[in-house]
Write a sequence for this structure.
């Protein structure tokens, strides 16, 4: 798996969300450094599971759409004497 990198703005947004979660749900202030460290840890240790799930979901969606296209092509196929 390629390393997933975020722009500075994206990473700042993610870090702010981690800080807000700690404050809102755990009633703890967490500094930017600690939030960034935690974000990096989860990205490295758990990120692949979410990434793979996303790929699997995308694969299933594409397979469903290809089946729909295959069905649509079959419906417009003209009869011939050739065997399939």
């Amino acid at each position: 798996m390629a390393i997933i990198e975020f722009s500075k703005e994206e990473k700042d947004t993610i870090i702010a969300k981690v800080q807000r979660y700690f404050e809102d749900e755990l009633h703890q202030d967490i500094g930017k450094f600690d939030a960034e460290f935690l974000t990096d840890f989860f990205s490295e240790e758990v990120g692949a599971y979410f990434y793979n799930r996303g790929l699997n979901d995308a694969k299933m969606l594409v397979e469903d759409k290809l089946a729909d296209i295959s069905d649509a092509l079959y419906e417009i196929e003209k009869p011939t004497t050739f065997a399939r």
About this structure: The mean pLDDT is 93. The chain is about 75% helix and 0% strand.
